[in-house]
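Here's my example:
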Amino acid sequence: MIASLRLKTNKHTMRKIILILLSVLALNQANAQGKKTEKATFGMGCFWCTEAIFQRLKGVVSVKSGYEGGTLTNPTYEEVCTGATGHAEVLEITYNPMVISYDDLLEVFWKSHDPTTLNRQGADSGTQYRSIVFYHSAAQKALAEKYKAELNKTNAYGKKVVTAIEAAKPFYVAESYHQNYFNKNGSEPYCRLVIQPKIEKLEKIFKAKLKN
């Protein structure tokens, strides 16, 4: 009788343990799914020129062109272009860290523009075109600062990297005609002469990281 009672008790205890484990696993899975994507925000000159680069990377879910780092709420493109609002033209990138790491995104960022020119990218001049990383976590900040320090230590560009690294600020999505610009206007002279060479460079350097 006692042995039978012990057996029933053990079975009941095991069921409770199994149910608890299943609940914990379900909770962990839900948390993992809830944090399936993260954000990265980069300013690297005209967002027309850079949006298409990140759109082509595996693990990148979406790319939004917009404005960040200024003092005016809901700025327009015309206002940002004056340089008076303090905003930079940026890309807000939503990505899956299980597919592409923040390190990978930083590598693409620094190899897809000139981070040594202050408030300028090519013919585009003004604070709105500054090279900047807006970090969303302490981990992103540490990685960006480490990467920048290494570039300067090794004199990778022959000149000092002037990219600013700042905490993320309110992001304002740019007007609809700025979104998906290259994919919608690829035949225009500006796209063929300025953006297409950047895409070709991306395809050579980061071929393994591109979407099929």
